[in-house]
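Quick entry, no commentary yet.
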Amino acid sequence: MHYLLPPYFYIPSFFHTDHKPKVFRQNPYPDIDTTNFTESAQAFQVLMQDAEIIIEEFAHSKEFAFKVMDAAQKSEHEKVKNLINSLDISHPAEVDFNPDNIRITLIAQTKDMDCCRLVMELHW
């Protein structure tokens, strides 16, 4: 014996009547203001100039390089920091070293906050 099943009806989605109006969302991000970004870039340019002064001194003055390495070998942290900061740089340098390398960090500020940081690591 065979039973007849009710036919299946396919209702396309465009026949649904529960159309909701589309909601257009506003941009969740604030308006773009490049002032801080450009000020940071300008401050970083000065950091790059300071880094160039430091690198030039290490590259061309064996006497200066010797003084820095000698003080580091004797664990005279303040002396190493003072030697680096004695160069004609406009930002104070944070200095850290170990038997493998020296790390010099230059930090610039704009509007009383740290805006950019340049870290140099040199192997010795």
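second:
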Amino acid sequence: MIYLRSFKLSDYTDRNPNIYPDYVFKHVAGEVLLFDRITVLYGNNGSGKSTLLNVISNKLEIPGAEKMTSYGHSIYAQRFLDFSSYQLGSDGQEHEIRQLPKGSRYMKSEDILYEIKKIQQSSVLREGIMYEQINKGMSKAQAEQYEATYAFKKKLDDIQFSQEKYSNGETSMQFFEEYLQPGQLYLLDEPETSLSPANQIRMAEQINELARYFDSQFIIATHSPFVLGTLHAKIYNLDARPLQTAEWFELDNVQFFYQFFNKHKQLFE
């Protein structure tokens, strides 16, 4: 299922080179990204892939978005959002989708790390669960009411139990197994955080299955060669000028891994 068909970046670039987020996307101003069931935004540090996910999530008002107007450039950020546009997809009967699934979400690497911290440090367990509920769409008042429920206490007990049971990577896998559900649009920022190569591949295979068989759509920012090589995805290379798609094995980061291991191949033979 394609919930988000395309996204067009603002074609306006301020003359001031320090205006955010104009300067981040100066090289791709006015570009249109066309999305598949799984689309990857690839780029090295500073390429703008995480910022692009946040722009999309702000424009679509997806839960988990970091409000761009809090960065001190509210007028310019709002202008960028106003000048950007998107087109939703269609359902199985080719009827245009009028709104995104309610469970759609933007998940940042910080969310995953916070989940790990929440599990491993009992002093922030309660705060972490409240943060999670608000991030999923609850108001502060609703979250406070939830805190008094049996469901809250059970979740707290479960997390305290898992504190002694799971490593960082296993906690991350739990996070994705709990939150990645059928029939949703997910924007994932570096989901490989804390995962071993084997678990990165396992997670990517799970994403492939959700996209192919369970009507979920993913837009993912990553530079992990294991994730890139496993996902059945369209890949946009944000390091390229102009913006273009690429095969995973053509990307600089993957080539770096190949050259490194090829240089030491005699050690493996």
